[in-house]
Amino acid sequence: MKKLAFGLLVLAVAGISACKPSVSPQDLYGKWKYKRVRNPNASPPDSVGNMTLFEQKPYIEFTQKDSLLIYWDNKVLSHGTFAIDGSNIQYTEVIPGGVRKFPFYIERFDGKQLIFSTKGADGSEVTAVKE
Questions:
Q1: Which ranges in 35-126 belong to alpha helices (H)?
Q2: Which of 32, 43, 44, 54 gets the highest tally of CB atoms within 10 A of its CB?
Q3: pTM score, whole prediction
Q4: What would the pLDDT profile of 61-88 be if each residue is shown by its tens digit?
C-alpha cells in the first residue's frame, strides 16, 4: 500500500511539473527583446543569426491596453491585441482588410524570460528577455 501511495505521489509531482506555465496579462506588460529566433520545422531547420538580432533589434511589446506590437529594425512588423487563453497567448493581428487570429504557445515563462512559438511548417520559436 505504501508503494502505491508513493507511486501516486511521484506521478502527481511529475504531472504538476509538466504543466505549462501560468501567465497573466500583467506578467507580460512591457518590452521583450528577442534573443533567439529559430524555425525548427523548416527544411533544413533555420535560425536568425546573432548579428542580425543585434543589428535589427527585434522585440515584442505588450501594453496595458492589451495591445501587442512586434518591432523589427525599428519598424512595426505586426500589431493587434492579445488575450491569455490558458497557457497560450491568443493574438488578433490587424491585417489589410481585417484581422487574423492565432495562438502563440508559451513554452517557458519565468518572469524574466519568455519562450513562445507558432506551429506549422513555417512555425517559429522565439526566446525573449524582459527589458
A1: 50-56
A2: 32
A3: 0.81
A4: 999 999 999 999 999 999 999 999 988 9
